[in-house]
Amino acid sequence: MTKQPPDDLYLRYMAAFRAATAHTADCPACQAGQDCAPGAPLHERLARLQDAYRARQAKQRRR
Ligand SMILES: [Zn+2]
What we know:
Elements: H1 8-25, H2 28-31, H3 39-61
The structure holds zinc ion.
């Protein structure tokens, strides 16, 4: 595995991951998979960044 310096997309992905995880830890609705009003945008943001990050990883692997 090649080691890469943390970059902006990765940092935003991690920040979104932490935000969503921290919220879910205190939210029974999100724990049950039913996104609440404040939680939905957090999960949406995480999903978007995760997609972008994975898409980029896949692209890099093809090199
Ligand atoms: Zn929630």
